[in-house]
Structures are given as structure tokens and as C-alpha cells.
Amino acid sequence: MKSSFSDYTLGAGVATDLVNTSALVRRSTGEVLVDAAALGHFLAEHHLAPDALSSARAPTDRDLEQVLALRREVRSLLESGDEDGLADRANALVERAGTRPVLERDTDGHWQWFVATGPGATLADELAALIGTGLLGVLHTLGGERVRPCASPVCDGMFVDTSKAGRRRYCTPGLCGNRLNVARHRARQLPEEAG
């Protein structure tokens, strides 16, 4: 799998979404990555075709175990709040792939920096390289303050804000943001109904 340093949004998005698959975050629905098939669905949702799964091999229970360990590591990294530590740990994620950055032409013929995973890299190593590359791109381009906890008081999610304005507040705006809006609406309705 090849990760571009220029397109950090994919890696940052995978970091956010992976961390937020946990039962710690999904209190009402529970763990998302319950088995290897769920991991395959997660990869498909993100349009990821890792080299470790070449020949149409589906994720295994071992892949799931390693990805869940990666998820804990990424959550710890996102929670750290230390830019230097973020850079060091994101660099370590990239190094797991076993290769160095390369300069190659993209599909439009422009020069881009890529990190390609080495032969024999595990699925978790490939995801680590993608996430690490994304986080390094965010840190370089947008700054460490874009790594945040969800603003919802009933959510323990984390996210990497890659939006242009940088004002995102919720890990899952359609879920956490809507919950607060509904709660506020109901709170406003109560005094009207009582009166």
C-alpha cells in the first residue's frame, strides 16, 4: 500500500474512524470491530486495499487482534496533546512499514512524496504507516491543535480536524452534534409545554 504525504486526509480520517470504533466511544451500539469480517467492512468503507490482503484474502482473527492493538496505540497518541510526542510516535508508526519515503509521479504526472509498505508488512503495519503519514501531514500542514477530543459531554471520541476552517467540534458530527441539538431542542420545548 502506498500513502501520500500530500493527501493527509485519508490517513487522518482512518485514524479518527479507527479510534472511534471502540465500545468506549460507541456506548449505545458497542464495539464495531467485533470480528474479522467487521474489519473487512471497515477497510471497504475507507476504500482501502492493503497489500497484506492481496489475492483477495480477507482479514483474519490475527489481523483483527493486531489492528485492535494499533487502535489502542493510536488513541493514546491522539490523547497525548504533545506535538513533539505526536511527531515522534507518528514517525514510529510510519517506520513499521519497513521502507523509506520515495518521490514518485502521481497519476497526474506531478511529483509527490509517498511511503510504500515493504513486502511482508502486516495489515496493522500498513494501517500504521497510513495513519502515521496522515498525522505527520496534519501536524506539518495544520498543526497539532487539530487533534481533539469530541466536544459532546456524552462521548469519549477523538478526531483529527482536517476541515478547511478548523472549527470541527465533534468526532461524528452527524451523531454527536445531532444528539446535542436534539437535547437542546427538547430542553427548549419543556418550558413551552409546562406553560
Instruction: Give the termini distance in whole angstroms.
Output: 62 Å
Structural class: mainly alpha
Low-confidence stretches: none
Relative strand content: 5-15%
Query: Mean pLDDT, nearest integer?
Result: 86
Radius of gyration (Å): 18 Å
Q: How many alpha or pi helices? A: 6
Biggest sheet, spatial arrangement of strands: 1-3-2
| Assembly state (oligomeric) | single chain
Helix content: 40-55%
Based on DSSP secondary structure assignment, what is the total number of beta strands?
A: 5
Shape: globular
- The helix-strand sequence is EHHHHEEHEEH
Largest sheet properties? 3 strands, antiparallel
Notes on the protein architecture:
The structure is a single chain. By secondary structure, the protein is mostly helical. It is 49% helix and 10% strand. The chain has 6 helices and 5 strands; from the N terminus they run βααααββαββα. It has helices at residues 8-19, 36-45, 61-79, 83-95, 123-141, 173-194; strands spanning 2-4, 101-105, 111-116, 147-149, 158-160. The strands form 2 sheets. A 3-stranded antiparallel sheet has the order 1-3-2, covered by helices on one side. Strands 4-5 form a two-stranded antiparallel sheet. A hairpin with an 8-residue loop joins β4 (147-149) and β5. The longest helix is centred in the last third of the chain and has 22 residues, at 173-194. The radius of gyration is 18 Å and the shape is globular. The model has no long low-confidence stretch (mean pLDDT 86).
